[in-house]
Amino acid sequence: MEFSIGWVLSLIRRARLREITEELWEEYLTARLDVLLPQGDRVELRDCGTEYFGARSAVVLTAWNPMGEEVDLEENERKNAELAMDLAALSVDFLPCIGSSADTSYREAGFIAFDLDEELAIGLLRKYRQLGYYFALGRTIECRLSDSDEKREVKEISTR
To answer: Which residues is 32 bridged to in the sheet?
Structure first.
């Protein structure tokens, strides 16, 4: 099943209003989470789990498009640079990460932070006005909403 970028953006705008639909959950749960490695390679988080990085847990977060509102590339990059400085100030290990739709027609840059306290992560998400994040524990990855207890397990690549 293919989704147009306009359709996805309309779902994101509805999510901003806390109308998380099943269609939007499906987008979140089938998204690619590509971690960019220092040597230039990339790995999909579901393929390797947090153990690959020597970490117990990881949080994938971004500062792009606050509350699902699309902003220009320059603003997204500026906010992500601020997020990187915040992560560095917390003295946690982190790497760049690209979240994208399953067909890669929509992409957002962000970071994967290893063994970051989840409450600190939620504070950053609120600061950068983000609806949700991915939390990984070993090979289990969940999509969680920032301001609620709602969470769902991300689908395995083989089931997409």
So the answer is: 100
Distance, CA of 33 to CA of 55 (rounded, Å) = 17
Tokens 């690549």, residue located: 157
CA 82/CA 52 separation, integer angstroms: 27
Distant-in-sequence, close-in-space partners of 143: CB < 8 Å, separation ≥ 6: 25, 28, 29, 132, 133, 134, 151, 152, 154
Q: Which two tokens stand for residue 28?
A: 């979140």
Other C-beta atoms closer than 10 Å to the C-beta of 56 total: 12
Q: 119 exposed, middle or buried (CB, 10 Å; 0-12, 13-18, 19+)?
A: exposed
**25 or 11, which is more confident:** 25
Q: What is the mean pLDDT of residues 10-16?
A: 49
Domain count, the chain: 1
Q: What average pLDDT score do residues 121-139 get? A: 90
Say which residues have a Cβ less than 8 Å from residue 38's Cβ, sequence separation at least 6: 95
State if pTM tops 0.70.
Answer: yes
Calculate mean pLDDT across residues 93-121.
Answer: 92
Per DSSP bridges, beta strands 57-61 and 107-114 are: antiparallel
pLDDT tens for each residue of 32-52: 899 999 999 999 988 888 889
